[in-house]
Amino acid sequence: MWPSTWLPFLYPPPASVYVAAMSAVSLVSMANAGLAELRGNHMAYSKFWHVVAAGAGGDKQRRQGGGGGALLKSRDGMLVAYAPALVAAAASFAVPGAVEGARAQILSAALAVHFLKRVLEVLFVHRYSGSMPLDTAVTIATSYLLSTVTMIYAQHLSRGLPDPPVDLLYPGVVVFAVGIAGNFYHHYLLSTLRDGGGGGDKGYKIPRGGLFDLVTCPHYLFEITGFFGFAMIAQTVYALAVATGTAAYLAGRSCATRRWYESKFEEFPARIKALVPFVL
């Protein structure tokens, strides 16, 4: 029997081998990806693919994967990564019985808003100067698509199960809204730092404004906040696993980002943490 007295904020896990397996896979794989970031083994996108910090001795160029696969412009690659999850979240409303009840409808709507924001940022906010391997874009797209579909499916399976004693639905909406607003604001601040021309990494500057005066990656902090908003809205084991795995991955990536800035800028302030102000 599910220990409801231990976890009064979660639905009992459904009798689904698929959802149980995906919960474990999502948590472990994303935590491993976070450890890989800490070790300097970065996914093939953003500045870390093109420039890897090499300590005080300078930078070195490195292609991850080493293959000769097709390359996309970074903007196109990120659209490929985000669009399928957006379509899936929006399409869930057209699938009979997929989003029954207020909680399921709010979860699907929040997922759709999250990925719509990402697509709009790719089109109108972010600035890109590099490329992304097609296989990386497809890998990211598959991960987001599976997590979105599985989160909605796990919510569907929770119908008929005993409701959690602690209802976090509407607090979760507030947490999600804070996360998505804070993430957008700091993405906008980042976009204003890039030079208009040129390639490579020469357009990067030390971020300023917002929480950038306290941490290197406030946009990741707010993204984690948004994912825990999903978990609070859903109150399923799977949504919590995804949020926890996302936090682990972005924590590793934030530490790698801070190291990168330290290697690029001698004047980078030591007081600025990686992810959590005054803590991490």
TrEMBL record:
GO MF entries: oxidoreductase activity, acting on the CH-CH group of donors
Gene Ontology CC annotation, any one: membrane
Transmembrane residue ranges: 15-35, 79-99, 137-156, 168-190, 237-256
Alphabetized UniProt keyword annotations: Membrane, Transmembrane, Transmembrane helix
InterPro entries reported for this sequence: 3-oxo-5_a-steroid_4-DH_C, SRD5A/TECR
Domain 3-oxo-5-alpha-steroid 4-dehydrogenase C-terminal: 169-280
Membrane topology classification: Multi-pass membrane protein
UniProt record, GO biological process: lipid metabolic process
Cellular localization per UniProt: Membrane
Pfam families for this protein: Steroid_dh (PF02544)
Stretches assigned to coiled coil: none
Family: Belongs to the steroid 5-alpha reductase family.
Record protein name field: 3-oxo-5-alpha-steroid 4-dehydrogenase C-terminal domain-containing protein
Organism: Panicum hallii
Classification of source organism: Eukaryota, Viridiplantae, Streptophyta, Embryophyta, Tracheophyta
